[in-house]
Amino acid sequence: MLRKGDLTQGGITGTLLRFTLPMMVGSFLQQCYNIADTLIVGQCIGAGALAAVGSAYTLMVFLISVLLGLAMGSGTVFSLHYGAGNQVALRRSIFSSFVLIGIVTLILNVAVFLWLDPILRLLQVPRDIYSMMRNYLWIIFCGIVFTFIYNFYAALLRAVGDSVTPLWFLAVSVVLNIALDLFFILQLDWGIEGAAVATVIAQGAAALGIVIYAYRHRPELRWRRDDMCFDRTCLKEIASFSTLTCIQQSVMNLGILMIQGLVNSFGTAVMAAFAAAVKIDSFAYMPVQEFGNAFSTFIAQNFGAARYDRIRQGVRSAFVTAVVFSLLVSVLVFVFAEPLMLVFVRPDEAEIIAVGVAYLRIEGAFYCGIGILFLLYGYYRAIRMPGMSVVLTVLSLGTRVVLSYWLASMPEVGVTGIWWSIPVGWLIADVVGIWYYRHVLGARGS
After folding, report:
1. Phi, psi for 419 (deg, rounded to 5)
2. Where are the transmembrane segments (predicted)?
3. With 408 labelled, which of 123, 309, 332, 358 sits at a CA distance of 20 to 30 A?
4. pLDDT digits (tens, 9 = 90+) for 339-349
5. Cβ distance 163 to 294 under 8 Å?
């Protein structure tokens, strides 16, 4: 009998795409939280506010990546137990990971409030936007608990094959966010602080909605009194997957944060261009990122069910799909780079537009590299080798950071060197990941 959310049965490509589509839409909507702030702030307040929100977003992503990494790692464990049909282990792992990530959230929240100013100074935030960025971040991190709750339950539902439900609550919260953005900024004139308040309220709505749904409609995922214990084996498994995935996400975003600091040193115009271009970038490769996450759930369930033949077929199908889609998106971004920048930047900001277009046409031409890398991350995480995902992340981001600082220091190259370092990092990690899959795992018969 086919269980709800079972990815170990049925056609492979169709199953993957049907499972991925709601995740893609959900990721698109989640991007809209900051996109709405960036677009409305950039058009209604100005370039300084745009630079502040864009730079704040990079810091937010780095800090929240700790929670997302823990949730993703836990989700892999949930998928493995669900695929194996072990309901007791599933419920106990849900309880253990919820407590673990909740404690980390509390520690992270306190740390942010204590060290926010030293972090902003380290990032070389220009004096003219320092106070705006600080106020925005202070409010945003007052709602970090909502980020934890929503992403934990979204990861749980996706792990058991339900990628649709998180989408509905996210959709409602995004609409609420945009409406509150317009009300607080245009009607109440709260400025950049209004955008932050709107985001926190909207995230709170998503968190509350998904918790109520999970409690009422998925009783098999609700832990019982005898599940509320910290079994050593369960804790070890959760800690292993969650910590390594957390490290992977943190390393990834630490590298991006270091790049942000380098970009900031080139001034407000480059900061604003980078802020807008990164939003476009996020949208462009977001579908293959979510495809990689869906692929990871697919592999994990089949790995738990020992369906190794299905895993090999899934790998081939996923790689072809990711490459074709990435090439198509690269062409679109290259051709429409300038109109895309104009969505976020006023037409009279010629310097900002020119810098953003250069970024998109260099980096955007190589989305195939990041598409393959997302699949490799998901695959190694799902087959109980999250350490390999960390290795690939370090290779990719390490190359990008070192190359960026080296090239940007050359007057004849400048900021363009930062853009070229990105696809080079992707390529190196892809080559290593594919080589390991073919020659090491292949030799083992994995």
Report:
1. -65, -40
2. 32-53, 59-82, 94-116, 136-155, 167-188, 194-215, 317-337, 357-380, 387-406, 418-437
3. 332
4. 988 887 778 78
5. yes
